[in-house]
Amino acid sequence: TRLVLPWPSWIDTISNSACMAGLCLRRVCAVAEGKPRSRAMVCVPQHITPPRGVLKARTMALQLSTLVRNAELDAIETAIGASAILEIRTGGMPANVAAATTGTLLALASLPPDWMAAASGGSKAKSGTWQDVAANATGDAGYFRIFASDGTTCGLQGTVSALGGGGDMELQQATVGLVSGQSFTVATFTLTCGNA
Fold first, then answer.
1. Closest by alpha carbon to 194, among 64, 76, 61?
2. The pTM is what?
3. Dist CA 59 CA 180 (whole Å)
């Protein structure tokens, strides 16, 4: 948010009082005007309403260039590393990637060395064929995890659905059911960076 203010003394007074009281502050960029050939940057507490007639505010949404968004997406594959490991399991996914893996392991697949295509237009799709020639167990796929090549460091997780089901990862089949010993293929998996 860009705040355009004259140079009133209440800004420093309120900010200091809020800090001493231990209140949370949101760093809001403000431009104090009225000083010859200069502008000063100040912080205004989130919960404080300035005197009437002093403040004019205009909300601005954060935006990233396509170049930056692509770089963020490519960094994900770089961080996880080449030849990642895909696991598909039953049930709901854990609270976060650091939490212990849950559910029955239905399938485990070694992904291609370069398992994601180069990001383009703020999106990054899977590269090559993601497939397990023989599922480990029978059950309904609930979520997936992608690990580094060591098979223990989880870098990504998300939901699994049948083709067209809208999951983070869609299987090339009409249901989420996997059968022990039978093959399965991942149809679609795409990462998208927001703030366009």
1. 64
2. 0.69
3. 54
In the three-class reduction of DSSP (H, G, I as helix; E, B as strand; rest coil), residue 106 is classed as strand
Residue closest to 160 by CA, chosen among 113, 84, 101, 106: 106
Cα–Cα distances in Å, from 69 out to 62, 117, 126, 127, 169? Answer: 12, 14, 17, 19, 21
The Cα–Cα gap between 155 and 80 comes to: 6
Contact 146, 112 (CB under 8 A): no
Q: Which of 136, 110, 87, 116 is nearest to 193 (CA)?
A: 116
Structure tokens given for 100:
């212990």
3-class state of residue 126 by DSSP: strand
Name the residue with tokens 């996880």.
Answer: 80
**Position 117 pLDDT exceeds 70:** yes
Query: How many residues are present in the chain?
Result: 196
